[in-house]
Q: What sequence folds into this?
């Protein structure tokens, strides 16, 4: 996917990113220059990504969630994020449309990348999200979502599925769009 170690972003990647993000050419070039300074190899490893991510959640245990986020952004499964993957991820999480964000959320929950989400995957991601919530915020959560397990159960019930059923991407997106509570449950801060 990606870029070489050259000093300028390739025309192909620049055009692709201009077409698939809301970033201007100037912004993309600036991002690329900063990316090259921070990542001279042109790639971010999973460990580097985790170290960056953990800094955003100093009161929490963010490592597990960071691993899942990294997996969802590493679209070519090479164990690194190149500049294009990095910018697409940045766009998606900061300025992307709700449907695109939910497509990404689905990929986050689809741990085994088989195109479906199971209850065990919901439990795994909810556990990782729950670790991001600082203890003082956990203390004030409603009793039906004050543990990762309860939160996962509550979210799974929104899809009206049995213990061994699975949810396809379209079902996930519609289910979350149609239910503010489900949307709130897939986010980091359950009180937002």
A:
């Amino acid at each position: 996917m990606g870029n070489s170690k050259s000093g300028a972003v390739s025309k192909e990647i620049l055009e692709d990113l201009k077409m698939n993000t809301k970033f201007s050419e100037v912004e993309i070039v600036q991002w690329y220059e900063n990316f090259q300074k921070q990542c001279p190899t042109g790639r971010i490893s999973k460990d580097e990504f985790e170290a960056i991510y953990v800094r955003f959640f100093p009161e929490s245990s963010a490592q597990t969630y960071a691993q899942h986020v990294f997996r969802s952004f590493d679209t070519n499964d090479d164990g690194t994020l190149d500049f294009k993957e990095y910018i697409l991820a940045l766009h998606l999480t900061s300025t992307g449309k709700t449907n695109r964000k939910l497509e990404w959320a689905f990929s986050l929950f689809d741990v085994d990348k088989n195109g479906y989400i199971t209850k065990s995957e919901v439990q795994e991601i909810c556990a990782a999200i729950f670790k991001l919530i600082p203890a003082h915020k956990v203390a004030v959560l409603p009793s039906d979502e004050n543990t990762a397990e309860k939160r996962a159960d509550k979210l799974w019930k929104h899809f009206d599925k049995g213990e061994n059923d699975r949810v396809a991407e379209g079902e996930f997106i519609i289910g979350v769009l149609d239910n503010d509570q489900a949307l709130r449950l897939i986010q980091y801060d359950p009180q937002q």
Observations:
- Strands lie at 43-45, 80-82, 116-118, 166-168.
- DSSP finds eleven helices and four strands in the chain.
- The longest strand covers residues 43-45.
- Confidence is low (pLDDT under 50) at residues 1-5.
